[in-house]
Amino acid sequence: MPVHSFNGITPTVADDAFIAPGAQVIGRVTLGAGSSIWYNCVLRGDVQEIVVGERTNIQDGTIVHVTSHTHGTYIGNGCLIGHLAMVHGCTMEDHAFVGLGSIVMDACVIETDGMLAAGALLTPGKRIGRGQLWTGRPAVHIRDLKPEEIERNRAGCAGYVENARLHKLGVGG
C-alpha cells in the first residue's frame, strides 16, 4: 500500500486521486481531487505538511518534502511537476510548472503560470513571477511565457488528469 501513517497521522487522499504503484505518500499529506502521484514518487509529510491541490500531477521519480518547523510544501491546483524533480519546503501557486529534473528549494514561490525549466535549480527564497520562465543553475528569469505556452502547460495538466483516470481503471499502459 503506497499510503502510510506517520506519528499517528494518515494522508488524506481524494477518492478520485491516483497514486501509482511504487509511489509512497507518508504522514501529513493532502491530495486533492483528480490529482496524480506517479510511479516511484515520494511525498514525505513527516515534519511539516504537504498539500497538493486538485488536478495536479507529480510525475515519476519526483520527491516532495518539507523543512522541519519552518516550511511545509504547498502545491496549487492544476500544477505540473516533471519527472525526477525535487520540490522542498516551497509554494507553487495554481498552474505552476516545474520541469523534468528541476530542484525547487526552501521558501521559494512559483506564482500562477510560472515555469521552472527542465534541469533548473531554484535556490532558497527565490520567487518566479506570474507567467515567467526561469532556467539555469542557479535559475534566473529569462523571459515571460507567451499566452500559447501558458495554454500548452495547462492543456498538459488536463491530459494527465485523463491519463491518471485510465491508469486508475487499469486501462492505461
UniProtKB/TrEMBL annotation:
Source organism, top-level taxon: Bacteria
Protein name as catalogued: Gamma carbonic anhydrase family protein
Taxonomy of the source species: Bacteria, Pseudomonadati, Pseudomonadota, Alphaproteobacteria, Sphingomonadales
InterPro entries from the UniProt entry: Hexapep, LbH_gamma_CA-like, Transf_Hexapept/Carb_Anhydrase, Trimer_LpxA-like_sf
Pfam family for this entry, one: Hexapep
